[in-house]
Design goal:
By secondary structure, this protein is of the alpha+beta class. 35% of the residues lie in helices and 27% in strands.
């Protein structure tokens, strides 16, 4: 009998969950309900969460869900699924086409125990995925992060919103060749993994583990590197309450170079 890995067994389920979230949120945006901005944000998050709940329930598989919108489980035991139903809800509610759903499968609620990750762009349907020790893909194409690049030539995505202090980020802001603030950490990490950007910086301590769980596996499997709360390739508990400071880059060398600007 051929043994199927946990990641392989769940791959079609993760894809189905993401596709259903995309279908539901697109329908909501196309119907353009007469809601204010904050009400629309709340509706999008709620509908995405409900879609994930319904899809997982229909599989009949035991699973423990860790979600930005609330934790729950089906059956007893089973793997952990860390989800951000919509990462980039502000963008989506404003009609800015940069938002994603993020799904990370693990056998323990730790970043180091994630076995598969999937991030889907909710506008384009583009899928980024990874399986631990087997690589990362954008659709059917195997991806690797960009080559090492000096910071004055690098494109750096950075989040300095919500009144974040400039302490620690003046260096990247001053020295990077190009800066972008995109509004979805999950997609930003996937762009980093596929070589579109060279580094991602978010040291506000507002970023949640649910935002980056899948994206960090995708980045790592593509050859990238990251530092969490000052620890290289740092581990963290997967919970909706856990926040972190993150510096990530296309290669270990580029990570080291951007960290030098933050001293």
């Amino acid at each position: 009998m051929v043994s199927i890995s946990l990641a392989s067994a769940w791959a079609p389920i993760l894809l189905e969950v993401a596709e259903n979230v995309r279908s539901r949120t697109r329908k909501t945006m196309l119907n353009k309900p007469a809601l204010g901005f904050f009400e629309l944000k709340k509706l999008l998050d709620s509908e995405a969460q409900q879609t994930i709940h319904e899809t997982l329930k229909q599989t009949g598989k035991p699973v423990r869900v860790i979600s930005e919108e609330g934790d729950y489980s089906f059956g007893r035991g089973g793997p952990y699924l860390t989800v951000d139903p919509v990462d980039g809800t502000t963008n989506m509610a404003k009609g800015i086409p940069f938002a994603a759903t993020s799904l990370a499968l693990s056998n323990k609620p730790r970043l180091s125990r994630i076995v598969a990750g999937l991030v889907m762009n909710l506008y384009t349907g583009e899928v980024y995925r990874a399986e631990r020790n087997k690589g990362a893909w954008q659709g059917a194409r195997r991806i690797s992060s960009a080559k090492s690049k000096p910071i004055p030539e690098a494109m750096v995505s950075i989040d300095i919103s919500k009144g974040a202090p400039f302490e620690g980020v003046e260096g990247p802001i001053r020295e990077a060749g190009h800066l972008r603030q995109l509004g979805s950490a999950a997609l930003s990490l996937c762009h980093l993994a596929s070589g579109l950007v060279d580094a991602h910086v978010d040291v506000r301590n507002l970023l949640r583990a649910t935002d980056v769980a899948a994206g960090l596996l995708i980045l790592k499997e593509a050859g990238g590197a990251y530092m969490i709360d000052g620890a290289l390739d740092g581990d963290l508990e997967l919970s909706r309450a856990r926040t972190l400071k993150l510096v990530a880059a296309s290669t270990p060398w580029t990570l080291d170079e951007i960290l030098k600007t933050m001293v």
